[in-house]
Amino acid sequence: MWQCVTPRAVGIARWPEVPRGVDYKTGVCRALGWPADDQADLARAWQRILASVGSYRDLEPALLGRVEELIDWVTG
Predict the structure, then answer these.
(1) Are 27 and 16 in contact (CB under 8 A)?
(2) What distance in Å separates the CA atoms of residue 49 and residue 75, rounded to the nearest whole number?
(3) Which one, of 61, 49, 47, lies nearest residue 11 by Cα?
(4) Distance of alpha carbon 6 from alpha carbon 58, whole angstroms
(5) Is the pLDDT score of 76 beyond 80?
(6) How far apart are CA 25 and CA 41, in angstroms?
(7) Residues 6+ apart with CB under 8 A from 39
């Protein structure tokens, strides 16, 4: 879900690529220079990412389309 937030909203050029076998959240945090020593660090990273979202424009359009499809399917 982290990559559903646009890099621009978070203030980065692009989301870092995390090598296979490395925990994604830990890898992203380390690549961005954020603490990633324990679950509390990862939770703070998610809070930081989430706080960067101010509107739907801060989310990737592909996610929004899938969410709309899900809503249509569930309510149809």
Answers:
(1) yes
(2) 30
(3) 49
(4) 5
(5) no
(6) 10
(7) none
Maximum alpha-carbon separation in the chain: 45
Q: What is the pLDDT of residues 11-68, one digit of tens each?
A: 999 999 999 999 999 999 999 999 999 999 999 999 999 999 999 899 988 887 887 8
* Residue of 51, 45, 43 lying closest to 32 (CA atoms): 45
Model-wide pTM > 0.85: no
The Cα 60–Cα 27 span in angstroms is 21
Cα distances (angstroms) measured from residue 65 to each of 11, 38, 44, 61, 68: 24, 33, 28, 6, 5
3-state secondary structure of 59: strand
Q: Is 6 helix (H, G, I), strand (E, B) or coil?
A: coil
What are the two backbone dihedrals, phi and then psi, of residue 5, each rounded to the nearest 5 degrees? -85, 130
